């Protein structure tokens, strides 16, 4: 049985913006009913090119409906440039976290948004140019590669949780493992671009990254974190606001806060929660 946050339950039981926008500027469909999840997203822009109206129709599980509903609430009022920056992790964070096994629902939301924007702009989303690796769920090599890079995935199970690839007959497991090995190999053999940081530089960059990249997403959901100390590569933080009482805060710290700090400050940082 999955553990859902109250916000996931609320968006599932009372989904916002259900339906199809009349005279939409763009309509995109992703997933397929045969594969168990499908999402149709439509939006209309106002005279300032901001998303004025956005609606969804989703076939799928509770978290697929909740993530679609959350996505529409998040992007209303945004420009397309702002909406393009919304990641699947932002959608999961908005909902206070999702079970790992349901992260693919947030990926489906992000894919629908990207496809709708691409349709509006008359371009083709990059992943649709890839080669199908998982026939059961129609997932391409580029989609798998992107999920690994963006979410720091390391195992076949991770890839299935985030993309559904590999969750059916299993024929694609070998091909998925090859992609994981290649991408992780590339990530680990990347030349060390970063010079060694002094402790003061490290703390400064952590503070800047929290302020610029992490806090705004947490605040969308009424949450926050405070940097308490940095001991070597251990980043000690305390959760605040809605994060302090959220059951999924560990997941947020690991898969969002730590992943961002590793990406933008230092790849060996480990985030630990302390009570203060
Ligand atoms: S081909 Fe990927 S699970 Fe069947």
TrEMBL record:
Q: Which UniProt keywords apply?
A: 2Fe-2S, Iron, Iron-sulfur, Metal-binding, Nitrogen fixation
**Annotated ranges, domain NIF system FeS cluster assembly NifU C-terminal:** 206-271
Q: Does the keyword Metal-binding apply?
A: yes
Q: Name one Pfam family in it.
A: NifU
Q: How is the cofactor bound?
A: Binds 1 Fe cation per subunit. Binds 1 [2Fe-2S] cluster per subunit.
Residue stretches making up the BFD-like [2Fe-2S]-binding domain: 132-181
Q: Record-annotated residues binding Fe cation?
A: 35, 61, 105
Q: What are the GO MF terms of this UniProt record?
A: 2 iron, 2 sulfur cluster binding; iron ion binding
Query: Which SUPFAM superfamilies does the record match to this protein?
Result: Fe-S cluster assembly (FSCA) domain-like, SufE/NifU
Is this entry keyworded Iron?
yes
Kindly list the positions annotated as binding [2Fe-2S] cluster: 134, 136, 169, 172
Query: What are its cofactors?
Result: [2Fe-2S] cluster; Fe cation
Please list the residue ranges annotated as the NIF system FeS cluster assembly NifU N-terminal domain. 3-123
GO biological process per UniProt? iron-sulfur cluster assembly
Show the InterPro entries listed in the entry: BFD-like_2Fe2S-bd_dom, BFD-like_2Fe2S-bd_dom_sf, FSCA_dom_sf, N_fixation_NifU, NIF_FeS_clus_asmbl_NifU, NIF_FeS_clus_asmbl_NifU_C, NIF_FeS_clus_asmbl_NifU_N
Per the similarity annotation, which family is this?
Belongs to the NifU family.
Its annotated function is as follows: May be involved in the formation or repair of [Fe-S] clusters present in iron-sulfur proteins.
Q: Which PANTHER family match?
A: IRON-SULFUR CLUSTER ASSEMBLY ENZYME NIFU HOMOLOG
Concerning NCBIfam families, the annotation shows: NifU_proper (TIGR02000)
Q: What is this protein called?
A: Nitrogen fixation protein NifU
